[in-house]
Structure formats: structure tokens, C-alpha cells
């Protein structure tokens, strides 16, 4: 990738941060929703809350990134300003990568607040920071790419949020966020290992000093491999809008 | 002369519907070239093909020497595009929008702000540089959209219906700015459905109807084509029903159309036409207030060459506001 493309990706992400980070759909789905879930689980059972922290951090990654993609892509598709980007000397892949990066940075900000607050409040100081970063960074990019893939299929922000809810809720219930995968029936366990959130939850478990069900290197590998696997079809689908 | 745009057999179909039908033309560097035609003629589709937003179904083109099928990212460095929709970012201020465009086009960082400020001054937006785009009037939005296309000092500028939706004063001001682009040596490709706009701004004009170029020449050349067909314009004291139909019946081989509250009759010898009009007025019991012989205009050329009424153009997109 050329220097010009990398520079454009950075500026597109920067512009999206300035433009969309305070949009209501980003705040409601990307911040309020995961925070509300965290509070609900904490209030219900404060004693065992520590066990839920890896899943809740992973859920924050999932919701914040995918919610932001709906805003940065679908607002622009609807208003025609995505075309404005494509009039510049940038490829469709560059524009999409800029959008994915913008979503990942937004997710990083929200996730960092949740993770740091949880670690300090619960005294989880046996954390392996390197593992945590190696899991969180590819997860943020991968879920942002997943959000982008779903968003290019529809035009409106609300359509994108609705479409994204299907995989989001499936993953929340089957990827070990609330229910350990080991306790799931075999069929659901098989489905769980197809869900990318499983690898994020498992990796964060290990980064926080808990036992995981998959070697962390595999978690990282799967998450990294999924980034291009999601971006490539998203770029193709977006390109089909401009044939 | 160097060609800025070379188009060869360019075709675009959507689900079997031909939007652009094998068009061919060349635009020289520094030329102001107009695409004139009614809505749906294929003007915007042609611009989208030439600025890389759409892919041709057949044929091809070279823009500033770059193949539109494979080298558009390179070509876009030297192209400015003003789309029909003023689609800058509502949440960004005027100056932030221009600086962002400078960033995307690779304008050196030390030049971005001065250049953005200079453009804001040129377009009379400097006082509102820190206001959000969403708060701009329609004319200001159009002006900023044009300014955004100039941030990187393009060699070729595409303007898609630049004055649609503007009031008369704003449209006149924009036309003056577009004329300055020509003087600065920028190649201008402009689409419009305003006949007078094409006449004023363009060195050459292509008339586009249903995806095909039906004529292409200088405005004077196009008018000369209409000169062979004289036109008379007749005004009546008051509107009388059936006058148009009656004159069409009396002059079946000629083109007769209503323009505002007047009748325009193309072709035929003057004695026959005037005789038919007088007979009609007598029969309908109305008075003729004037009969004028018209100097051929671009409108006449358009009527003759396309067979369409100029009202088709005036009615497009709600006409001038």
C-alpha cells in the first residue's frame, strides 16, 4: 500500500472522528448500550461480576465498532458524501479502510474506558497488557470490518443497526460473554467457535489471567486473519454501488 | 493542441436501458465544453464515467491521457469535480471542509490553510469560514462545493449542472467565476440544461438527447444550423383557446409551438405564415399584437437539431428559482 493511500486512510478516519463521533446512533448503540448492559449485570450480581469482565469488554468492542461503522458509512451513503471521497485520488478500498480505522479508534476509546475502569475498580492487576493489546487491537479492526461489511449492504443508518443486531446478539449469547462456552451443548459449542467474538472473549480471559479454551496465539491468528477476510468482500460490495 | 478528454464509443447501460449510447468526442486542453440536454439525456452519467464514479459498459475514454478503466486514481489528482449535489460535510466548517479536501488531494500541509482561505475569499465565504456547512444557504453550499473542487489546482474541471437551484444573482456570480477558470487555462466540462448558460460559457457544445450526441459545434456554428430555418414569433392580445391547433392545421409541414404566451413558427415562407396567422386571428376573433422575425438563437438550434421544445429544458428540475 502506497504512502498516499495510508495518508488518505488516516485523514478519512480523522474526518470521521470530527464529524460523526457525537452522532446519536453512535452514542446510543456504541456507548449507552454496552454501558447499560454492564451496569445491569453489575447491579444484578456484584459479587461474581469479575467473571463477566472479559465478556463485557469484548461486548463493548463489538457494539462500539459496529455502531460506528453504521454511522460513518450509512450517513455518507445516504447524503452522497461517500461519493465526495471517491472523487478524490483514492480507491474504494482506501475509503473503506479509512472507515474501518475510524470505527476501530472509536471502539478503542470506549473499550479503553470500560477496561481501565473495570481493572481499577475490581483490582484486576494481574493483567498481561501485551496479551490484552494483541487481542483488543485486531478485535477492534475486525469488528469494525464486520460492521462495514454489513453496512454496505444497506443504505440507512437504522437499517444497518437492525441488520447488525442479528450477529451481535447471536455472538453475545453464544460466544462466552455471559455463559461459558464449555457449558453449552455440542451444537451451540460448534456455532460458538464460528463466532469471532469467541476468540476475543477467550483472549481477554487469558490476558486477565484466567484460563482460556483456545491457545491465545490461535485467538490472535483468527482475529487477524478475519480482518482482510471481511474487508475484501466489503470493498467489493461497496464497489458494486458505483458500477 | 493536446486533448484533455478523448472519448470513443462510450456506452453505459443500466439493466438493459441505454443511458449513454456510443458517444465520441474530443476536448482540447483549455477548452470550455458544454453538454446540453434535457434531464435523463445522459449528461450526469457521462460525467460519472469520466470522473471514475462509474464504469463504462462499452467503449472507453482517456482523461488527461489516463485510461478511465485502469488509471483513474492517477487522473483524479489533476481533476476537480463539482457534482450536481452539494455534498460537502454538514458537520464540518467551511474551512475544515476545504482543508480536508486538501488533505485527500495531497496538497502540502503548509499550503492547505492559505489556499483554503484564498478560495473562501474568492467565493465570498470568508466571513462564514468557521460556520458549519449545514448552516450555509443553498448558494453558499454550491459555492463551497465548487471551491472544494479547486483546492488542488486541477487542470480539468467537471461541473455538473453548476447553477441548478441557485437564484439569478448567485447563478450570474458563479458563471463569472466559471469564465475565470477558462481564462486561467483550466479545461472545463460543464453539463447544463440552461441554453443561455451553455451559450455564454462554452467554446463548443454537444447536444445530448437520449444518450446520443445529435450535434456538436461552437455556439455560433449551432446557431448557423438553425439560420436556414427562419422563425416568426406571434403575440395575441389575449389567450384564445385552439389557436395553436388551428395554426398547426393551417401549416401542417411547419413546427409550431407555444413559448410562454406567444406562438413560435419555424420554417415556411414569411407570406404564407403571416397569411395563416392573420386568417386564424380573424376566425378566432382575436387581435395580433406583434409578429417578430427571430434572430436564430441556441434555443432555435436546439429545437431544430433535437426536435424537442425548449420548454422541455426550462421545465427540468423546477427551472430557475
What descriptive keywords fit this protein?
heterodimer, A: 243 residues, mainly alpha, 10 helices, B: 321 residues, alpha/beta, 6-stranded mixed β-sheet, 4-stranded antiparallel β-sheet, 14 strands
What's the gist of this structure?
Chain A is mainly alpha-helical. Chain A contains ten helices and no strands.
Mean pLDDT of chain B: 87
In the predicted model, the low-confidence regions of chain B spanning at least 5 consecutive residues are none
Q: Which stretches of chain A of 5+ consecutive residues score pLDDT under 50?
A: none
Mean pLDDT of chain A: 88
Question: Which sheet architecture does the biggest sheet of chain A show?
Answer: none
Number of strands of chain A: 0
Structure summary, number of beta strands of chain B: 14
DSSP strand (E) fraction of chain A? under 5%
Classify the helix fraction of chain A into a percent range: over 70%
Shape, principal axes of CA atoms of chain A: globular
Distance from first to last alpha carbon of chain B: 39 Å
Computed CA radius of gyration of chain B, to the nearest angstrom: 23 Å
Instruction: Report helical residue fraction of chain B.
Output: 25-40%
Structural class of chain B: alpha/beta
- The oligomeric state is heterodimer
